[in-house]
Amino acid sequence: MAFPQPKPQPPQLPQHLLKTIDCQQGAVRAVRFNVDGNYLLSCGSDKSLKLWSVGRGTLLKTYSGHGYEVLDADGSYDNSQLCSCSSDKTVILWDVATGQVTRKLRGHAGKVNCVQFNEEGSVILSGSIDGTVRCWDTRSRRNEPIQVLDEARDSISSLKVAQHELLTGSVDGRVRRYDLRMGQLHVDFISSPITCVCFSQDGQCTLSSSLDSTVRLLDKSTGEMLGE
């Protein structure tokens, strides 16, 4: 006699609190894992960026150099560099080990909301309240961006890079997907200002949240709404 198979359990959201870290940075504007999840970056309204050990919950280093609150940060794939952005309109490239500013990138006309390395760590992409995404070459000494994407009609609130694609969300209510290899732009109109965007794990869908309290899952190639 065969016993019935146990019913597969639906995936559970994490609900068990592992650790609470008192960052002592005023308001914490963003928290980001590094590439392997062993370290955390916290962005504070006290103008500082802090690096934490996830396992021990201990502070490893504090990075100071911004003139106003730090709004976002990202770590490179090899953990050797950090980038951060701030209300002071700048993007800073940091050396992780020394804590020194490698480069301070200026060009945005307003506060910079979001920042991310590409997968090789050779380009930093930054999105700003000025409606532009700027691409900075981390290995060049030039202070100008290598490309400026200015299609948005309002502030860029979120951006994500995956391989040759860039996904941006804007307060103008549009999710834009740039195929950097083909030089193409795909736009999905969502009636409400976008607060956050990301790709699905398999890269086939995009997920966006907006100010109408809704999260939307869209098919990347067709723009069809798969769930909300």
Automatic annotation (TrEMBL):
Keyword tags: Cytoplasm, Repeat, WD repeat
Q: Where in or outside the cell is it found?
A: Cytoplasm
Which organism is this entry from? Answer: Ilyodon furcidens (goldbreast splitfin)
Kindly list the residue ranges recorded as spanning the membrane: none
Enumerate the WD repeat regions by residue range.
21-62, 63-104, 105-146
Question: What family does the entry list?
Answer: Belongs to the WD repeat MORG1 family.
The answer to keyword Cytoplasm applying to this record is yes
The molecule here is called: WD repeat domain-containing protein 83
Keyword Translocase listed: no
Where on the tree of life does the source sit, at the highest rank?
A: Eukaryota
Source taxonomy lineage?
Eukaryota, Metazoa, Chordata, Craniata, Vertebrata
Gene name of this polypeptide:
WDR83
